[in-house]
From TrEMBL, chain B:
Entries under PANTHER family matching the protein: ABC TRANSPORTER, PERMEASE PROTEIN, GUANOSINE ABC TRANSPORTER PERMEASE PROTEIN NUPP
Broad class of the protein's primary localization: membrane
The species this protein was found in: Thermohalobacter berrensis
Keywords in alphabetical order: Cell membrane, Membrane, Transmembrane, Transmembrane helix
Stretches of the chain forming a coiled coil according to its record: none
Protein name (record): ABC transporter permease
Membrane topology: Multi-pass membrane protein
Transmembrane intervals: 12-38, 58-80, 87-107, 113-133, 145-163, 210-233, 264-283, 303-323, 343-361
Length: 314, 378
């Protein structure tokens, strides 16, 4: 009995980690962009293009890490468009993000048809060419720890990245500058910080991270790209970022919650459990709404989030 | 010094000019992408155009494709004008189509009355769904973008839950039962397949071709809704108040407008509109709802429709029709040229992208004027 429970728990925790990782990358992208004052609703599109490039480069090169990197760069390239619009041309950032969400999936599927004989699905990567599981040889098979923590390397990387972004944002000069630009760009400008450069950097990085998130999906969770692979995960990551109050550690916790819901649905799908999976799948979203209603305090975005900065304006 | 604006300058300074310019750039970028991929863009665009206009049936289909996104566009536009961003049209559409199917299938009512009942219940249900986001914003300060994203997913899973229920799910399928004929708004639905209808129509090939698509009253209702939205926003006290809240929440409050109530009402109306889009799609075209593996995109397309239509009621009709053409005509380049139909999304994305940056277009305009000025001096 106890063994069964532990077994189930290990399965749920393991799947939670696996499903959370892509969300964590993407949510971190949101954190970095919005802390510099640029709303990034285009995470979904950046994640999709990252997933496509990750899977495609992974398939042709046989090197998952090269795929992962190119996935990130593809997301970053798309993010540059968002930066040009929202930083240089003071665009409505939400509108520009919506454009990205049409461009990302559009380009991904267009290219997929070009590279894979008209198919919107990329050809699957061989199992040994997926992202490796480095701890596979170290952990003893069959133990609780092994079942939970024997994950694809992209999962560990996601959590390491959370720590890195936290450190950069709160412990370095660059982080202070990013937050200053997001809170009060005019003051930051007066102090000699180049608002535009900081914002370009942050938006680019947010695309890179979202691209990583997509690639972590197509190179680890599954082994190819298909049209419904991302469908909405970028938006969930966006919600997780707000849920986590624009902080890397908070976003991570929120992503774990969404991942856990998915893990639970997968787990219960394999059991005789009576609660319909649709109702379970709904829970994290309902929970998010309830929590946002103020039971854990208000979520306040950076003061200048979404406000274009124009040097000569007052 | 005031000089008369030339037509060109007027176009560059006005909303319409920006939009038309963006649409042109959208198609140019689409052409460049096709060219790089090794296709002839002129050929691709002419396939699209003939795929939309060359047969009456195609025109019918284009309008059918445009109808739901015109209305979700109205929903988004209405919210935008009152200072709210309704990303939730997607979920409100789902709720509307679900309720429309349930009422359309389970209730037995006389024709016309049945449809009216379906229409009203779907609008109410989706309106309340939208109002949740308005209420959360008004009472708890929850940003409507995140609230509606959450509500979209909840709606999707609710839909899947109800479609799976015994008594509603059609056995051996992933869809619900179909609505009763009494709730249908498809024109001459039974007659056109009856012996009499077939015989009569064979004498009128054009009419026959038009009716080969599920032509329905949806488009007419969409136009009426656009007029209604325009009227509410511009000609009523309610519209004035809602827009005032959108312009400046604090000023509106100071002026004696109940801001919290306005937000709820605004989201209710936006939700009802998106729900009507779903109800019309069910009663006019699909007749049932299916299990959704992912979002269908009617709400997200509505956002783009609204933006390209400058967030106005009548703008939404035109940009919705443009969308309908792209969405119906676009995929035809796939079988004819083996060119990826997703170029359509690239065109749409580019249009929205340039709509977002009027500053760029203004700069371009002034640059051109400057050059001409220099030439004149020289």
């Amino acid at each position: 009995m106890l063994d069964n429970i532990l077994e189930s728990l290990a399965f749920i925790l393991g799947t939670t980690l696996m499903y959370s990782a892509p969300l964590i990358y993407t949510a971190l992208g949101g954190v970095i962009s919005e802390n510099s004052g640029v709303v990034n609703i285009g995470l979904e599109g950046m994640m999709t293009i990252g997933a496509f490039f990750g899977a495609t480069v992974g398939y042709y090169s046989g090197n998952p890490w090269l795929g992962f990197l190119v996935g990130g760069l593809a997301g970053g390239a798309l993010a540059l468009l968002h930066a040009i619009a929202s930083v240089t041309f003071a665009a409505d950032q939400v509108v520009s993000g919506i454009a990205i969400n049409f461009l990302g999936p559009g380009l991904a599927l267009f290219l997929s048809r070009m590279f894979f004989d008209g198919a919107t699905m990329t050809r699957p990567i061989d199992l040994e060419d997926k992202i490796p599981r480095s701890l596979d040889k170290i952990l003893t098979k069959g133990t609780f720890i092994e079942k939970v923590f024997n994950q694809y390397d992209t999962v560990y990387l996601a959590f390491i990245l959370v720590a890195i972004i936290w450190f950069i944002l709160y412990k370095t000069k660059l982080g202070l500058r990013i937050r200053a630009v997001g809170e009060h760009p005019k003051a930051a400008d007066t102090l000699g910080i180049n608002v535009y450069n900081i914002r370009y950097l942050c938006v680019f990085l947010s695309g890179v991270f979202a691209g990583f998130g997509g690639a972590a999906m197509s190179l680890a969770v599954v082994s190819n790209f298909r049209p419904t692979l991302i469908s909405g995960q970028g938006f969930i990551a966006l919600a997780a970022m707000i849920f986590g109050k624009w902080k890397p550690q908070g976003a991570m916790l929120a992503c774990l919650l969404f991942g856990a819901a998915q893990g639970l649905v997968v787990f219960l799908g394999g059991t005789e459990f009576q609660v319909p999976s649709e109702i379970l799948a709904m829970i994290p979203y309902v929970l998010t709404l309830i929590i946002l209603m103020g039971f854990v305090g208000r979520a306040t975005p950076p003061a200048a989030d979404g406000v274009p900065y124009e040097k000569d304006s007052n | 010094m005031k000089t008369k604006l030339k037509l060109k300058e007027k176009l560059f300074s006005g909303n319409l000019g920006f939009t038309l310019f963006s649409i042109v750039i959208g198609f140019v970028v689409g052409a460049i992408v096709l060219l790089i991929a090794g296709f002839n863009p002129l050929e691709a665009y002419s396939v699209m155009i003939s795929g939309v206009f060359s047969r009456p049936k195609y025109i019918s289909w284009t309008i059918i494709y445009a109808t739901p996104i015109i209305i979700t566009g109205l929903s988004v536009a209405f919210a935008f004008r009152t200072g709210l961003f309704n990303i939730g049209a997607e979920g409100q559409y789902i709720i509307g189509s679900l309720v429309a199917t349930a009422i359309g299938y389970f209730l037995k009512l006389p024709p016309v009355i049945h449809f009216i009942f379906v229409f009203i219940t779907a609008a109410l249900a989706a309106g309340l769904w939208g109002a949740i986001a308005g209420y959360l914003k008004a009472k708890f300060g929850v940003h409507e973008v995140i609230a509606t994203i959450m509500l979209n997913w909840i709606a999707l899973y609710l839909n899947n839950y109800f479609v799976m229920l015994e008594g509603f799910k059609r056995p051996q399928s992933e869809t619900s039962y179909e609505i009763q004929n009494t709730a249908s708004i498809t024109i001459l639905e039974n007659w056109k397949y009856s012996d009499v209808g077939r015989e009569w129509l064979s004498n009128y090939p054009i009419l026959k071709d038009i009716l080969a698509a599920p032509v329905n009253l949806g488009f007419l209702i969409a136009i009426l809704l656009a007029i209604l939205v325009w009227y509410i926003l511009n000609k009523t006290t309610l519209g004035y108040e809602l827009r005032a809240v959108g312009f400046n929440r604090h000023a509106a409050e100071y002026g004696g407008i109940n801001v919290e109530k306005s937000m709820v009402i605004s989201m209710f109306i936006a939700g009802a509109l998106a729900g009507i889009a779903g109800a019309l799609q069910v009663t006019g075209v699909t007749k049932s709802v299916a299990i959704l593996a992912a979002m269908e995109g009617y709400g997200f397309d509505g956002i783009a429709v609204s933006l390209i239509g400058s967030n106005t009621a009548f703008g939404s009709i035109f940009s919705g029709l443009l969308f309908g053409m792209l969405k119906y005509g676009g995929p035809k380049i796939q079988p004819f040229l083996r060119a990826p139909s997703e170029v359509v999304n690239i065109v749409i994305g580019t249009i929205v992208f340039f709509v977002a940056i009027p500053k760029f277009i203004r700069m371009l305009g002034s640059l051109m004027n400057k050059k001409r000025g220099e030439k004149n001096v020289g």
